[in-house]
């Protein structure tokens, strides 16, 4: 089973950016299979929608390093772990720029990028980048079309409702062809069908504690059914599970969640987000937590 961890990107870690390289190197040395970033812009004082699973907007999101720069650091100081995003808020980005950034990181890393893409949900963030949140689904769909064009064809030629690229040469392509694998979360019929038609896999999330495998297996079955109806091989789609930890979660409970996901939901790749478990502590502590989780999982 592949096990990964989020990079120290948010909260107190954002004020110690040298910790990104430190964590990435040591996680690789310990045997971590993947390293991950998120995508948050700000922490509104009076949010219209609270962060999922909380009654407020987490203070950790008052400070966050840029996801592309953070992945780039990890790319140049490691040689083996996959480099993922969970998730980039795709409607914020012009596809030409997003394609270039991800292709560059894929080149720098020798073909290790996993493009975790999502529609986003925080109204304040959308307003801050000047993108109507009501357009997020349509922009995400068009961006997927444009990324496919930028990554696989030359000359690139894309005409859409939101962006247009005249026939142009774009010679920097990802190492991975036709492009980095795309993974997306899915909770609605629309998003399930989008994963089934457009993605390489599903990005669910769980928290340590009582584990219910159907939170993963039920939507995955729907995705595979929709993929088959769309003419795809459903067995080509897989799962990467995000384990969202919080303060007080024990290392034993985190490891148990990963192992149960493996044994009861056929999850072969999971990564642990320590953002809230490791709040206001050092990068060295995050490295220690990651090593302990890896040790417990690898022992089973």
Automatic annotation (TrEMBL):
GO molecular function: oxidoreductase activity
PANTHER family: ALKANESULFONATE MONOOXYGENASE (PTHR42847), ALKANESULFONATE MONOOXYGENASE-RELATED (PTHR42847:SF4)
Alphabetized SUPFAM superfamilies for the sequence: Bacterial luciferase-like
Stretch forming the signal peptide: none
Organism: Pseudonocardia alaniniphila
Keywords linked to the UniProt accession: Flavoprotein, FMN, Monooxygenase, Oxidoreductase
Domain Luciferase-like, first and last residues per copy: 16-264
Parts forming coiled coils: none
The protein, known as: TIGR03619 family F420-dependent LLM class oxidoreductase
């Amino acid at each position: 089973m592949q096990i990964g961890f989020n990079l120290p990107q948010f909260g107190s870690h954002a004020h110690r950016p040298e910790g990104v390289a430190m964590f990435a190197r040591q996680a690789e040395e310990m045997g971590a299979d993947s390293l991950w970033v998120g995508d948050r812009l700000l922490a509104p004082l009076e949010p219209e929608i609270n962060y999922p699973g909380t009654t407020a907007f987490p203070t950790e999101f008052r400070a966050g390093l840029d996801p592309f720069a953070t992945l780039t650091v990890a790319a140049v100081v490691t040689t083996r772990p996959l480099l993922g995003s969970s998730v980039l808020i795709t409607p914020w980005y012009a596809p030409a720029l997003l394609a270039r950034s991800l292709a560059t990181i894929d080149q720098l890393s020798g073909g290790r990028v996993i493009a975790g893409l999502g529609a986003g949900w925080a109204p304040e963030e959308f307003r801050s980048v000047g993108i109507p949140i009501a357009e997020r689904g349509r922009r995400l769909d068009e961006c997927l079309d444009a990324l496919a064009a930028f990554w696989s064809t030359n000359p690139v030629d894309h005409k859409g409702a939101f962006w247009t690229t005249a026939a142009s040469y774009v010679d920097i392509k990802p190492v991975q062809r036709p492009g980095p694998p795309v993974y997306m979360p899915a909770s609605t019929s629309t998003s399930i069908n989008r994963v089934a038609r457009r993605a390489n896999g599903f990005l669910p999330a769980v928290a340590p504690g009582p584990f219910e495998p159907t939170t993963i297996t039920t939507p995955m079955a729907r995705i595979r059914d929709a993929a088959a109806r769309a003419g795809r091989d459903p067995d080509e789609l897989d799962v990467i599970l995000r384990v969202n930890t919080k303060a007080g979660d024990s290392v034993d409970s985190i490891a148990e969640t990963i192992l149960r996901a493996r044994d009861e939901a056929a999850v072969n790749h999971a990564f642990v987000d320590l953002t809230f478990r490791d709040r206001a502590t050092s990068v060295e502590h995050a490295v220690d937590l990651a090593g302990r989780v890896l040790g417990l999982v690898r022992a089973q």
